[in-house]
Design goal:
This is Thioredoxin reductase (NADPH). With 327 residues, the chain is α/β, with parallel strands linked by helices. The chain has 8 helices and 17 strands. Strands 1, 2, 3, 4, 5, 6 and 17 form a 7-stranded mixed sheet that branches. Strands 8-15-9-10-11 form a 5-stranded parallel sheet, with helices on one face. Helix 1 runs parallel beside helix 8.
Length: 327
């Protein structure tokens, strides 16, 4: 493949990257998917007990049915589904291979990875946003007791746990660790639990806070973290609490440095929206396309699997019909 010029190289082996691969194959295009981690790496790193907000049919790609035990599938069911999609048709995907750069070569792009070099006429970037957490930038954030990736509640049994945030990840972590016997304190910048929290979970967390089972500091933020304590800035002053672990569910962001390195223009405001044509998904770099949640910049709640899987069809249709659109 080093000597073969591909029609398209897809960066990212998540659900949308796989959807792009399926569409490329359907269009008869030569392609390869490059994924720096395992298959659907971001989903693999989700909390072990996570239940999706979307129903299973909205997570389907390539017309392959997704059957789950309940209407809303779990993380293990999603991993099984996307593995079956990737393996049964023989998707051309290279795992544990990281793209280092994408360089114009006058007739497409040269793509250098951690393992080899490729040439491709077009490149699709479907890298998501789960690899780079939004940091608190406070003293002690780098201590071993702090994590931005909550996985399993058993680890926190009988411990004093501070959970930062009030959206789905934070609420799930707070409720699950509480039910494993942790003493849970939530630190919430806003004045309420997030409105996007799953509707079947929101009453649960609100009731646990109201009855005092989970302590919550609203309009507050973590000020510093030490080995055995945390300091919380509240409307009534700074509160110091004994603490064993901090789950900083502060969200994530796309790899903006990589997008800029490739040459994709980003908006100057804090949202950092990448430039692309919504009809074709082509960026300001001719022949480079965006797909999936990476399109939303810092607005990471705009694109999901269910509404961005259509990006794959737009991209591959445009590649095979280059003269159908202008940018």
């Amino acid at each position: 493949m080093q000597n073969e010029k591909l029609d398209v190289l897809i960066i990212g082996g998540g659900p949308i990257g796989l959807a792009c691969a399926l569409e490329a194959r359907a269009e008869g295009l030569s392609y390869v998917v490059i994924e720096k981690g395992c298959l659907v790496n971001s989903l693999y790193r989700y909390p072990l007990n996570m239940t999706f907000f979307s129903t299973s049919e909205k997570l389907e790609i390539g017309g392959v049915p997704f059957v789950s035990n309940n209407a809303k599938p779990t993380r293990p069911e999603a991993l099984e589904y996307y593995r079956r999609v990737a393996q049964s048709p023989g998707i051309n995907i290279h795992l544990f291979e990281e793209v280092h750069n994408v360089i114009p070569n006058g007739n497409g792009y040269t793509i250098n990875t951690s393992k080899q070099t490729y040439t491709a006429a077009q490149v699709v970037i479907a890298t998501g946003f789960y690899d780079i957490p939004n940091l608190l930038n406070i003293p002690g954030e780098d201590l071993p007791k702090v994590t931005h990736y909550y996985r399993d509640p058993h680890f926190y049994a009988s411990q004093k746990v501070v959970v930062i945030g009030a959206n789905n990840s934070s609420v799930d972590a707070a409720l699950e660790t509480y039910r494993k016997g942790a003493q849970v304190t939530m630190v919430i910048r806003e004045g309420e639990i997030g409105r996007r929290v799953k509707y079947w979970v929101k009453p649960d967390i609100e009731n646990r806070i109201a009855e005092g089972s989970i302590q919550a500091y609203f309009h507050s933020q973590l000020e510093s973290i030490s080995e055995h304590h945390v300091k919380i800035k509240t409307p009534n002053g700074v509160v110091e609490l004994e603490n064993d672990f901090v789950v900083a569910a502060t969200g994530y962001q796309p790899n903006f440095a990589f997008l800029e390195k490739v040459g994709i223009a980003l908006s100057a405001d804090e949202k950092r929206y990448p430039t692309y044509n919504p009809l074709t998904m082509e960026t300001n770099m001719p022949g480079i396309y965006l797909a999936g949640v990476v399109c939303g910049g810092m607005d990471t709640h705009v694109w999901f699997i269910e509404n961005s899987r259509e990006h794959a069809k737009k991209i591959m249709h445009h590649i095979t019909n280059k003269n159908s659109y202008t940018f």
